Amino acid sequence: MLDKLTIIKVGGKIVEEEKTLHQLLHDFSEVEGFKVLVHGGGRSATHMAAQLGIESQMVNGRRITDAETLKVVTMVYAGLVNKTIVAGLQAQDVDALGLTGADMNVICSEKRPVKDVDYGFVGDVKTVNADLLAALIHQGIVPVMAPITHDKKGNLLNTNADTIAGEVAKALAKHFDVTLMFCFEKKGVLMDEDDDNSVIPELRREEFRQFVTDGVIQGGMIPKLENAYQAIDAGVKEVIITQAADIHLRQGTRVH
Amino acid sequence: MLDKLTIIKVGGKIVEEEKTLHQLLHDFSEVEGFKVLVHGGGRSATHMAAQLGIESQMVNGRRITDAETLKVVTMVYAGLVNKTIVAGLQAQDVDALGLTGADMNVICSEKRPVKDVDYGFVGDVKTVNADLLAALIHQGIVPVMAPITHDKKGNLLNTNADTIAGEVAKALAKHFDVTLMFCFEKKGVLMDEDDDNSVIPELRREEFRQFVTDGVIQGGMIPKLENAYQAIDAGVKEVIITQAADIHLRQGTRVH
At A44, which helix (H) or strand (E)? Predict the structure, then answer.
């Protein structure tokens, strides 16, 4: 019987405002058992880039990462956001360790090949050092992962935080009974996007397909759920889609 | 018989320029045995602060760290400089792990009390988690330490990199046979400050006192050497004062 592990991904908005960050740190400290936090920070990066006169270019919601932008995201994600969270968790007696993929070579990626779009210094995850992460977690350490990886050739690469959470969850599925939680602005996957209380509590694959066919689930939620089912195919026990305020309650949409 | 450990402190200038950084990463990878790197980054922080319109205030060579400056140094030291070094060392097959004092509560400090000067968010080291650091080092991990600590109450604090190197060396002296190397612009402590080749190869305490009396050693070198002897009093085997280009040769001034 494997130990339970909860991997929680929170977006930039939550961690960038003092009030919501404080609430998150408290709620995360209440999550029982072994846990990992993966964070974004895109809004702060965009804001910092603007202050430095660097234009943020986005294609399909993904950031184009030129050399100057890479410096900004490294500063903001791995420096300001990551260490603010780590210090905040330490104050709650959570033994947090901030990590990028470069640290102990935890996540190695490769620079995304140029096809239609040159995303610049963006890395697609190649390997996750699951044995090392599992050993740290079993020692009581709580990894706090910034969305920066490296290519083992000396280059840092910008990597989507959802992808990091998914890949880490898949890699750790042979060591733990993994629940992966994706936090966004809503309480879960909604039956009616205008009704915040219309959360679908459980979503099986057949239901998901039917909801897509019927147009109930659409837009950006479709790839999010496809990723969730990929994680489940790779051994992750369940994926919960929820809002940050509900992580300790484990409420939201259970995808399995 | 304790294992040997080399703790190397390098200043901002070395790690902030691509060419000298590349050389440092190579030289550091050649240092044999267990090792720790402690880095500064003040020049980049000053530059970044200026770009963001934040004035850098210095008193006696120490930075006054207001809330905005703390954000900048956290970004620059713990983000950009630290992760650039970590990725660079990983490319040299050095299993680097970037750390601030907040990570795993490695270094806990307290905000410096306001006396004549209010240094702001500056931390004086209170405790170093030597057992944890020693365990990591024995696993083959190379800590790369940024000059940021925390107070365990959720606050990050700016802490002088020389101080971090000294405190870590003292704390690890019961676990290892520690050599502490401070890198600066010269090849070592000079007999004649106008002659770069007048390095004093060995410096015992009595000689140091005599050189101070005779005016051979003066200015900022005096507190640097006083700190070195404090480290030796606390069990550090030797302190080497040298330039970054000589770390793998272990040349410079041996203080013991």
Answer: helix A42-51
A225 touches chain B (CB under 8 A): no
Partner A contacted by B86 (CB < 8 A): yes
Q: Flag if B87 and A102 touch (Cβ within 8 Å).
A: yes
Q: Which CATH class name applies to B4-255?
A: alpha beta
CA closest to B76 among chain A residues: A75
Query: Could you write out the DSSP letters of every residue in B169-186?
Result: HHHHTTTSEEEEEEEESS
Please tell me the distance in Å from A61's CA to the nearest CA on chain B.
24
Residues A86, B100: contact at Cβ < 8 Å? Answer: yes
pLDDT(B12) > 80: no
The secondary structure element, H or E, covering residue A170 is: helix A161-172
Round the CA-based radius of gyration of chain B to a whole number and report it: 18
Task: Extract the residue ranges of chain A whose pLDDT is less than 70.
Answer: none
In this complex, which of B80, B95, B156 lies closest to A87 when CB atoms are compared?
A: B156
How many residues in total does chain B contain?
A: 256
For the record, the structure tokens of A50 come out as 């603007």
Burial call A203-213: b when 16+ CB within 10 Å, e when fewer: beeeebeebee
Inter-chain touch B79–A78, beta carbons under 8 Å: yes
Strand order in the sheet with A123-128: A123-128, A107-111, A148-150, A156-158
A20: DSSP letter: H
| Domain edges within chain A | 4-255
Q: What is the pLDDT of residues B65-112, one digit of tens each?
A: 999 999 999 999 999 999 999 999 999 999 999 999 999 999 999 999
Both tokens assigned to A227: 């990723």
Maximum C-alpha span of chain B = 53
Q: Give the tokens for residue B199.
A: 């390095």
Flag whether residue B234 sits within 8 Å of chain A, measured between CB atoms: no
B196/B187 Cα distance (integer angstroms): 7
User: Is B80 within 8 Å of A96 when comparing Cβ atoms?
Assistant: no
For residue range B146-161, list pLDDT tens digits in order. 999 999 999 999 999 9
